[in-house]
Amino acid sequence: MSSESDAPRLACMEVWGGNQAVDTTLGTVGLDARVLSCPYGDSDHGGDVYSISSCSSGRITRLLLADVTGHGDLVAGIATGLRRLLHRYINTINSAELMQSISEDFRRNHRPGLFATAILATYFEPTRKLTLLNGGHPAPLFYRAVEKRWRLLDLHVSSDERVRADETAGGAVRDEKPVDRPKRPSNLPLGLFATSDYDRLEIELDPDDMVLFYTDALIEAENREGEQLGLDGLKRLVERIEPERGLVDELTRAVAAWRGAAQAGDDLTLMLIRANRQKTRWQDDLAAPLRYLRHRWQNRNRRGGGNGPSNQSDDWGIVREHLAS
User: Fold this and answer.
1) What phi and psi values does residue 313 have, to the nearest 5 degrees?
2) Mean pLDDT across the stretch 164-190?
3) How far apart are CA 253 and CA 112, in angstroms?
4) Residue 172 DSSP label
5) What are 190's strand-pairing partners?
6) Residue 204 bridge partners (DSSP)
7) Are 13 and 292 in contact (CB under 8 A)?
8) How many Å apart are CA 252 and CA 245, to the nearest integer?
9) Residue 79 phi/psi, 5° resolution?
10) Whole-angstrom distance, CA of residue 112 vs CA of residue 110
11) Which of these, 191, 240, 272, 319, lies nearest to 27 by C-alpha position?
12) Residue 286 above 70 pLDDT?
């Protein structure tokens, strides 16, 4: 991953992403991200959708990675819809409403039987907290730099079970808040049911801590004997790599060596984030309310509502909330 000064910065109120082949590095306030997406075969566009956004002040960074059951123009349309939703919630810290909106959008606007696994991450720079919601997606890996140790961030087991599992490996998880455990069916892939709750996992990131998100093609990679890499195999591979050497490049080479002559069977996307030491600038805090109002006005004009804001009280309420925070 490029150093903080080398990584192109995402502008405030910008949403970046898509489902095309890409290999890039981006920076936001508090995070550097490397995104590598390789559609299956010779395709330019695949079924993996990725996105990163930065709020009006830069304090909130949101990351989304989804694996859709489809390819081509269908998934390109889904990617466009997801960017629209990320824009709508770009200044909202709480991710639960966004995740519900994404799931409802899948059910309402796409053909029956279409679904996607997805993981949504929200980083709030003032507290250095990263909040994760997972809809049936493979669990990310978390690297604590001071401990030089990787661990799995699995929302599908209880906090106590996760601590006990890590204690057997030589250390407990001390920085995770207990998982919010709703009573309704939870953590389901998008589009399967009309409603689904999503558990929330929160961790605090120190400088150089990393989180690796990926699609299931990574852990389903098969060697010549037909054996899948799996979560345990992935963890063994990352533990052999020095983080400073470029984790994404080293990991893709290691997976290719594992496969040998066997061909990749699906789209593959890796999204690696590393906490940096960037702080929100006072100039961006000051300009944030105006950026937000300009964004809302431009959106209404594009929809044909050029006569003026239709919900001024809501807009000014958000501005007052921002100024008071």
Assistant:
1) -60, -40
2) 51
3) 38
4) -
5) 116
6) 129
7) yes
8) 13
9) -60, -40
10) 7
11) 272
12) no
Pair of tokens at residue 64:
């989304």
Domain boundaries, the chain: 15-280, 281-325
Q: What digits encode the pLDDT tens for the residues 227-257? A: 999 999 999 999 999 887 799 999 999 999 9
Q: Can you name the residues that pair with 45 across neighbouring β-strands?
A: 20
Q: List phi, psi (to 5°) of 54.
A: -130, 135
Amino acid (one-letter) located at 306: G
CATH for 15-280 (3.60.40.10, 3.30.420.40, 3.40.50.720, 3.40.190.10): 3.60.40.10
Instruction: For residue 32, give Cα distances in angstroms to 63, 161, 233, 248.
Output: 12, 31, 26, 13
Q: What separation, in Å, do the N-terminal and C-terminal C-alpha atoms of the chain show?
A: 33
- 150 vs 230: CA distance, rounded Å: 15
pTM: 0.81
Residue 177 φ then ψ, to 5°: -75, 150
pLDDT of residue 254: 94
Q: State the amino acid at position 231 in one-letter form.
A: L
**Which stretch, 90-104, 179-193, 275-289, has highest mean pLDDT?**
90-104
Interatomic CA distance for residues 325 and 321, integer angstroms: 6
DSSP summary character for residue 242: -
- Give the closest residue to 264 by CA, choosing from 39, 24, 9: 39
**Of the candidates 164, 155, 143, 236, the residue with the CA atom closest to the CA atom of residue 188:** 155
- Per-residue DSSP letters for 90-131? TT-S--HHHHHHHHHHHHHHS-TT--EEEEEEEEETTTTEEE
